[in-house]
Amino acid sequence: MRMHPLLTMTLQRLGFGLLTLFAITLLIFFAIELLPGDLAQEVLGQSATPETVAAFRERLGLDQPPVQRYLAWLGGIAQGDLGTSLANGREIAGLLGARLGNTLFLAAYAAAIAVPLALVLGLLAALYRGSWFDRTVNVATLSSISFPEYFVAYILMLLLSVKWGLFPSIADIGPDAGLGTMLYRTFLPALTLVLVVTAHMMRMTRAAIINLLAQPYIEMARLKGASPMRVILRHALPNALAPIINVVALNLAYLVTGVVIVEVVFVYPGLGQLMVDSVTTRDIPLVQACCLVFAGIYILLNLCADLLAIATNPRLMSRR
Amino acid sequence: MSTHDLDRRGFLRGSSAAALGLGMAPMLGSGAMAQPAPQRGGSVRIGHSGGATSDTMDPATYAAGPLVLAMLGGVCNNLVEIDETGAVKPELAESIEPSEDTRTWTVRLRDVTFSNGKPLTAADVIASFNHHRGDGTTSGAKDLLTDVTEIRAEGERTVVFELASGNADFPFVAADYHLVIMPANGDGGLDWQSGIGTGGYTLEEHEPGVRIRLARREDYWKENRAWFDEVTLLTINDPTARQNALVTGEVDIINGVPTSTVHLLERRPGIDIVEVTGSAHYPFPMHCDAAPFDDVNVRLALKHAINREELVEKVLRGHGVVGNDQPIGPAYRFHDASLEQRSYDPDRARHHLREAGLDSLDVTLSTSSAAFSGAVDASVLFQQSAAEAGINLNVQTEPADGYWSNVWLKDPFCAGYWNGRPTEDWMFSMVYAQGANWNETHWQNDRFNTLLREARVELDESKRAAMYAEMQQLCRDDGGAIIPMFANFIDGKAERIQHGTLASNRFLDGWKAIERWWVAA
């Protein structure tokens, strides 16, 4: 009985998620239609002539009206068929598959370092707030988030790769690299991402806990003689989890969807690069597929965050 | 080690040799002889720009990038190739013979096999050419072959090309990177999907926009080519990442070193810069049929209002030479060095404005980083130097995305780019001839067009030289393109990679590095 409201909510949210996905496909399709030029012109580039462009359009069906093309694509999607890339005729499912794996691997790698790091630093900063430690952590994380990603990436590359030769400067992982090789070769991009996302999560952890430390029940715990560490872990943290989980989810979503610059700088074949290439060539089915994956990940992560926030905080459940 | 000095000077000399004529080439080859002889073995990794996830093996869609480097210089051969001196050399053709009027070309094919064991026949050559002809084709090479009226087989190993009008330079066309020879698929089409060719390497792996892996073919028909055992091409589009990959030893060869950092890379031990003066140039085309550019005096005023030396110094950082408002640079056979070099002269520019009946001039120049690297800077420098001459140049920066389809050829005055072409006729016919699809200046000059037709069929070299010299002068004084500079092709390589005399027609030894370069002992 207790799980019931959660289950209803999950189903509701999944339903809304599907609607959102549908709206996104509409938006993306017509946004790309608005971009100047089409696939034929982009692929042929400077060497395009009117006849070759026309022949290209006819072969790919680009001469059909946009609504008709959208409906055809939607029909395919409804049957689980992502279609083929217009630019190179390959199956989109295959193209996406390998790259989605790479993207998720890098995101998981970065998250495995960044999330514990941010939580621990945030807790310690709250515990020793106002101290030198607190200030140093704040300045360091805020600095790393304030620099553009490519700058952080270049600095890491310069120091760890070019100067000291500790890690490879490009994350080229052949088709059959082992886990160890993969972790070694993708260390620099993962570290860049860690530096970019840690500050946000760490600051939220610190703020949420400090916010709670002013509450009367914390004072009560202190008066009872609980140690500062115990006050924070036992009394403050469970109530601060909801905002922390939300920020973590946002950052995880960012790690999956927003890393195209890191991919380019470290030559890592992820989804971001695929999507940028497909937008550049106006390869609509491929853009759509990428967007669906990205949007789906956002929706699922948000749903998970909300569920976890509720599950870890019974007060939210009872209020409903 | 002074190999690097040898490289730069030796090759700059080598490329001017190409301009002087073929007879000089053997003499100048001695510079390259100083290096150890090529040897087989080793693997090489190449970091290259221009790869995308949308790349396909279809030669109709080829554009500069790792795939073309792999296919043109590795997996496939053409009927002929352009050698390091800029001359045409038979490749899959044993011989290529013109008729008297240069309208019929007979090609006898070499007895070679594709990597799957199938012998090369006339049908494969015909399919490879027809893929780029006809109404349904989507090929970037379609324009090249509009003059070809018929291609027919005479027996298994002879192909005859019939042209609508004579063309003494037709073999150069056959060396174009779209026209690699692949097997026919049996129903008249081309089997490009399987990536099979007659070249020194077989395609082992192709992940578009990421990696291409080639392995050497043991039974390659060329004796002294294809030295590496294995070649890996990585797409590295970010120039900084590409240089770092070379510095850290992740790759052995990179293309397109930016002029802004080449001096830093040069200082790095173990790394050589490979630089040649090529045919690549950065034009500012004006539409000769649109006011105010329809007045030749306005065009001349603008041509005198650009500071060429400053552009070479600041935009190319010295890695190039000044241009003379005509596309036939020093790397060409028939480059006319005696044509007076135009220079920055605000007074002359004012004079031409007065001739056009104007006190001052307001024009808009569309520019974008997509045109060439440093195009926006070059446009702003142009704006400054033109202001001295009373010309108000309004620089309009356009988005890089879609620049070639939305701005170039459409705006009456913009920044452009040409890699150059192997022959004078090709360059002129493609961009300066009346009615050419890419006549970016809408220029129509009767004398020029007549000369172009006559020079095309002329087999007497000295007569041709005179004709092309006159055309260069017409282009310079009447044409609609301001051509302030020719850019060098600059690549980088690790010291252990060696090469002979470099071709000057493109990056990476005319895109043939895979076949021509080797690993030092």
TrEMBL record, chain A:
Q: Where in the cell is it found?
A: Cell membrane
MF term (GO), any: dipeptide transmembrane transporter activity
Q: Which CDD domains match?
A: TM_PBP2 (cd06261)
Which Pfam families does the UniProt entry name for this protein? BPD_transp_1 (PF00528), BPD_transp_1_N (PF19300)
Task: Note the coiled coil stretches, chain numbering.
Answer: none
Q: Which residues cross the membrane?
A: 12-32, 104-127, 139-162, 182-202, 240-266, 286-311
The UniProt entry lists the main location of this chain as membrane
Q: Which UniProt keywords apply?
A: Cell membrane, Membrane, Transmembrane, Transmembrane helix, Transport
Q: Which GO terms describe its cellular component?
A: plasma membrane
**KW Transmembrane (keyword) present:** yes
Q: How does it sit in the membrane?
A: Multi-pass membrane protein
- Give a yes or no for keyword Membrane in this entry: yes
Q: What region holds the ABC transmembrane type-1 domain? A: 100-305
Family per record: Belongs to the binding-protein-dependent transport system permease family.
Question: Any idea what this protein is called?
Answer: Peptide/nickel transport system permease protein
TrEMBL record, chain B:
Output the SUPFAM superfamilies linked to this UniProt entry.
Periplasmic binding protein-like II
Spans annotated as Disordered: 31-52
CDD domains associated with the record:
PBP2_NikA_DppA_OppA_like_17 (cd08503)
What Gene3D superfamilies would the database entry show? Dipeptide-binding Protein, Domain 3, Periplasmic binding protein-like II
Q: What Pfam families does the database record attribute to this sequence? A: SBP_bac_5 (PF00496)
- Transmembrane segments annotated in the record for this chain: none
Q: Which GO terms describe its molecular function?
A: peptide transmembrane transporter activity
Query: What's an example GO BP annotation here?
Result: peptide transport
Q: Which GO terms describe its cellular component?
A: ATP-binding cassette (ABC) transporter complex; outer membrane-bounded periplasmic space
- Identify the keywords attached in UniProt to this record, alphabetized: Signal, Transport
Q: Where in the cell is it found?
A: Periplasm
Domain Solute-binding protein family: start-end pairs:
88-438
InterPro entries per the record?
Peptide/Ni-bd (IPR030678), SBP_5 (IPR039424), SBP_5_dom (IPR000914), TAT_signal (IPR006311), TAT_signal_bac_arc (IPR019546)
Q: Which NCBIfam families would you find in this protein's record?
A: TAT_signal_seq
Assigned protein family: Belongs to the bacterial solute-binding protein 5 family.
According to UniProt, the name of this protein is Peptide/nickel transport system substrate-binding protein
Species this chain originates from: Pseudoroseicyclus aestuarii
